[in-house]
Amino acid sequence: MERGELAGKTIVLGLTGGIACYKSAELTRLLIKAGATVQVVMTEAATQFITPLTMQALSGRPVFTSQWDNRIDNNMAHIDLSREADAILIAPASTDFLAKLAHGMADDLLSTLCVARDCPLLVAPAMNRQMWANPATLRNAATLRGDGIAVLGPDSGDQACGEIGDGRMLEPEALYEALAYPETSLEWRLRAQIAVQSLHSSLLVTQELGASEAEILATTLAISEEILRIGPVTQQ
């Protein structure tokens, strides 16, 4: 999507299980205000944090939660919903859902339509700091980036569990900007954030392995150079 062209676009907003689902309500409001059509799809776990009725009221459209939903005439909700979308945003994206996407799993409506999509896919991770720092989660996020999926965040700060650290879902305004202005410096800031997170993870690994100060410095310089290499993205 080009700059400022959310009006008339269809965004499939996928919700997975997490307290950050409350932010998705505000994100829906922002997208609707911009003139976008928001089609909400929720996992069963997401319905434990916010009701489909709430999301239906905010989006003005029926919410889908099951791949067996008979409201789709051909019973192929994963195809119809993904073909109507200009972009799919999963917010919040749980640890479990990131793992599903990274391994191509399709065992519910939301994961199936992501696999069947023919449009851009963005995910906004939301989880406890230790869950985000888990090596398996970091590998899955790296796999998604390698597959061309935009991983937005996570942010750092206070968490619902009472801990502080990386894992907070980005705020609705930031996610809105990622959809509305994909070619601005926000994209570079997100890329730079990813590089910094990779730097932090790499340093932890090298320290645990007993690497020398020279090796740690080399890792730091290598990732810093990558941040400079990608540079800001400008509007074409």
Topology:
Elements: E1 10-15, H1 21-33, E2 37-42, H2 52-59, H3 77-83, E3 87-93, H4 95-102, H5 109-115, E4 121-125, H6 129-133, H7 135-146, E5 150-151, E6 155-158, E7 164-168, H8 172-180, H9 185-208, H10 213-230
Parallel strand pairs: 1-2, 1-3, 3-4, 4-5
Antiparallel strand pairs: 6-7
Characterize the structure shown.
Helix content is 47%, strand content 15%. It has 236 residues and is α/β, with parallel strands linked by helices. It has two domains: 10-182, 3-Layer(aba) Sandwich (Rossmann fold), CATH 3.40.50.1950; 184-236. The chain has a five-stranded parallel beta sheet, sandwiched between helices. Strands 6-7 form a two-stranded antiparallel sheet. The model is unreliable at 232-236 (pLDDT under 50).
